[in-house]
Fold these 2 entries.
Entry 1:
Amino acid sequence: MSATTGPVVRGTVPTARRRSWHLGDALIPVLAALAFIYLLVPIVYTVAFSFNDAGKSNLVWRGFTWKNWQNPCGAPQVCEAFRNSLSVGVVATLIATVIGTLLALALARFAFRGRPAVNLLVFLPMSTPEVVLGAALLAQFLSLRVQLGFWTVVAAHVMFCISFVVVTVKARVAGLDPALEEAAADLYASPFQAFWRVTFPLLLPGIAAAALLSFSLSFDDFIITNFNSGSFTTFPKFVYVSATRGIPPQANVIGSFMFVAALAIVLVAQLVSHARGKRRAG
Amino acid sequence: MPEVTTPALELMSVTKSFGSFLAVDDLDLTIPAGSFFALLGPSGCGKTTTLRMVAGLEQPTSGTVCIGGRDVTGDRAHRRPVNTVFQSYALFPHLTIADNVAFGLRRRRQHDVDAKVKEALDLVELGHLGERKPTQLSGGQAQRVALARAIVNRPELLLLDEPLGALDLKLRRQMQLELKRIQTEVGLTFVHVTHDQEEAMTMADTVAVMNKGKIEQMGPPEELYSRPHTAFVANFLGQSNLAPGQVVGREGDLLLVTVGGATVKVPVDRAVATTGSVLVGVRPEKIGLLIEGQEPSPNHNVVGPGIVTDVSFTGVSTQYQVEVEHLGTFGVFSQNLLGGATVTLGTKVRLAWSQEFTFGLDGDQDAAEGAADLDAEP
């Protein structure tokens, strides 16, 4: 054979493709898989145990059941805590997103006295330990004799959410060509119209991302909430408190539900942007 | 149509300073309605700042801006009857092409928006792309959409800020002709800012050459080219050979100037300075090379001899560099009527050109001002 193939074919024989097997080739996928398993185990555990036919505590697998999902509010207070967390999350997100967006616009668009200081101070809540913030806020509320409850939790959440909104939206504003606003003004748009018709729609993805981030931070927060909520119970606080006497499987149901909801939001967003891209290309 | 109309734009002693930097220095400028006007100058000369003050995107430090006879100095951008084609085009990325073009009409609550948008897009030959988004356009298409978006509003002034700067050379040539066609077709007043002298000369009826916040010279392109008033204009608009000389006398309508031992004649009406030290100028394509034994035609100025130090063939012409003792290097462009180069490297030649193409400048300026500097940005 080799005599008949001749020199012309020799150059095209893909000798390089027949590589010998290397340990490294397998190592990377295996390590990646292990890392993923490590990341996903707690989530799998949470979802699996939401189907556990639990007794007093939900630590040991006792058999499969639908009843927790059929009656997610079955455990005392769990749904009230969930509702509280949702309302705190929505209200805090709304306030933080509006204030944070305005702040980001001011910081990115206008040179004013004290801008460097504001830029720095906005980061402080992100970098200060939550325990310190929580304790300090509590001290403030107590010395001002503010009744602890829904509004003190909202105030606390708005405070730390604003930093994240500012950072997220500011990056978006910085990526915006200032000539776009000038073009809007040049095309007879008043400053308000220029903002509403051009700036805002272009910032919207950034603002939406900031709002989602705020909501998940607020929904998730335990440390600061625990300091400033008094008898008001949020979902994380409920889970923490009930851990001492056994977390009801309904907590797993709600946790799993939130996880699925978050996945669904991401998925829908991906699909929408994919469809848009397709329509554009078409 | 030599009737007297109000000028489209009048700037009266307009000054703009940024801190201690004087961007525009006491500028007076009148642009007649319906003209294609070019503000030409190197980067940093204040041309874009001038344009932005007309658009209302920048406030003058002092002075008055009048558009169509109305003082608009205090008006903000959205209240001025002016539209701009931005250098970056600044198309709204979240809107379709048609919505981009309709933006100005909708803000002013105009009727027949769709018909007007279609007409404007047809004018720039993009009628079929109305439903696309700006990201799906090529550079040349985006440029034309930006133009349509401005023209559709029929502004009293259309401002173009380096509109062709982002296009490649071939497309730029094409768009120059296209812009000129559109301007003639719609009859609007175009004010075009550019650093590209060829672009300015190709399109504009009137060119104002700006340097350091002031207008150095203004007029039709041919006049600026053949009779520059300053070394800056002579060098920035095309290329020039400028040689220092002394006025030694006068012969009728001609000045006698000694230039490096030779005496050349400069028409008095083509000389800015008529006494003392002057710069004698001539354009490279006006010069002919005389080899040994050749005699100049009558009424020609002759300098040299010099040595040919460089010959480069560019297709339509051949460019020579001739080193003349005491005078420096002369550039000579010679059309390749007979094929290629007629003189080889190292040949001893004399330079001759018709007296009527000679111009005289004030001798107190740097002869190299405005010339291409390899270190400067384009």
Entry 2:
Amino acid sequence: MKRTLFTLLALFMVMSLVLTACGPTATPQIIEKTVEVTKEVVVTKEVEVTKEVEVEVEKLVDRRVVIYNSYASDPAPRAADEELVKMFEEAHPEISVQHSTVAHEDFKQAIRAYLTASTPPDVMTWFAGNRARFFIDKGLIMDISDVWENEGWNEDYPTGFQALSTVEGKQYFLPTSWYWWAVYYRKDIFEQYNLEEPQTWEEFLAVCETLQDNGIKPLTIGTKYRWTTAAWFDYLNMRVNGPEFHINLMLGKESYDDPRVLTVFTDYWAPLIENDYFIDDPAAYTWSEALQFMVDGSAAMYLMGDFLRDSYPADQVGQVDFFRFPIIDPSVPVGEDAPTDGFFVAAQSQHPEDAKAFLAFLGSVEAQQYNADVLGRLPTNMKVDTSNFTPGQQKGLELIQGADFVAQFYDRDTTPEMADKGMNGFMEFWANPSRINDILAQLELDRQEIFAEEQ
Amino acid sequence: MLHSKKLVPYTFLIVPLILYLIWVIGPMAYTFYLSLTKWDGLSEPVFRGLANFERLFRDPIFFTSLKNNLRWIISFITIPVVLGLGLAIALNRAIPGAKFFKASFYSPLVLSLVVSGLIWSWMYHPAGGLINSVLRAVGLDNLARGWLSEETTVMWAIIAVAIWRQVGYVMVLYLAGLQGVDPQLIDASKVDGANAWNTFRHVIFPLLAPVTVIVVVISIIDSLRAFDLVSVMTRGGPYNSSSVLANFMYIEAFNNYKMGYAAAISVILFFISAVFIFIYLWRVTQDELEY
């Protein structure tokens, strides 16, 4: 009996230990201890001789912490990102930025876990538009109207970008950079065969044919991660049916079994595939692996965002130029894809003031100027000096300014689930163009299912 | 006194049982509940009855995944079992180098599945991969293909990697089983004039029956769990042709943020696995066959 009593007692103690361990504990303000080395002058007196000696003295300095998670995982943007953090820390020695970079695809999956954690990262990279709106509506993104106000961004940012960041009169997002999509091509190959930048679909097909006849694949693409196919759909649909129809399709207001969608596949996309204008086995390559075919000259064109030039070998990037995706129906308004990236502060941020200070820096002329100079990104802050822009940047700026409508991108304009189904549909179509009727019928079922649930 | 003696083991079990409840039973029950809801992982789950299951049985990707799991099971309970048993018999004797061969057949198992998946992705690479390069070098150009990008080959290409890994495992299980076979019985069969095949067919194989049951059931459970290789090599692509249930569930949950729908998939997967797990436990707890 005594033994039982003892066991129960022991058990009780263990349980109470377990329970206390589970109890909520206050989150301490994270303070990083760093050793700072400063030089101090120490005066030593020897008999009538005074010597000044410099001695290194170690001091403990408390620095407040801002946690910053970024998806800028490609080498060039990553380096620029790290440099920006360094610039901020130099300007604010009392704040230390804990910067981690997560691969783009992984970041998209991890962000929900970040945002719902009790101590989320303070500042994060994200996509402007619908993708940000989703989290704003859930109350997971902090209202940063005061930063917009204090930094004078309401004057310095164009209204289009303000609108992209504003929900019900309050600002939640900081758009910092955007890039255009276009058809990139090898200038030297075009010159070799006396080709010019095609303006219309007929001219584009003629260019493809000439290249094909000369043993060069007209187009390269890597569809391993599927989204590159979505660019083709975005552009063909916008050029054939107009941006308004396209964006309504993205919002679930038009149906995928609409005959207008079918034409995009049967009349424009399928001929490109059936004529073998694309490289072989695109599904085996990522977008950057497929770039190799353009670099080695076995393919001449690539429909891609401007980040293509980040990954192109620096000594050969001069051979690369781009043109607007050819016009198919001149009576249709011109739509372009120009995805905008930026930053936000998590609503549950444990260091809101310092996070806002970091955000203010990221939106400043200084930071944006750096990104524009180093990466050739287009800045959102109108105060950034654009006079030093390369002809390429100027051309991109004109491309977007000349557009009647600017879309974000297929997987940013529609819901994540619809984008997943849609891109699978594009992949299946690519491998079996004849199945397009079944594919679109299934996509339409998916659309009804998905958007019925959204209500 | 008698009463308290009965109580003691239970009091000792309380802590592990509570942990088991928190870490295993609780999440399981919660998944069952989630499968009846619509949940995006952020807001509160909304109860919607059996709607997820209704949708599941209309979803072609579900049936593609199920079919792929079946292909995986069928390949797994035949090829690695036959090869593993063959290797075990061949290497279960004192031939020179037997230890080296045992170790080398077992070595793929030491690699993590992610590493195996990556290595094989390179080997399958259509342009610079080992397999296509060798095929082209010996003039079989028409056999070279995009192994992981064509819907007809992709599933088998992934299953082949899984088999490559599984053979060593099965071999080790059978080698262990062979240690338990009494050599006297084999000698006795030889004295009775049985040839090698008859000895194997009528003496060794029946004695290995308990091992075989375990190997088969483990293979089935492993094929239902299949996820890592698919996720690393294709993520279920191209267009879901290599999707398996676990991968389908992962995409729905963490890519499309349909937690409720994904929970419904995992509930189905749970019931399929449960059947085989019960067979396994029932076999393991049975007394083994003795001669």
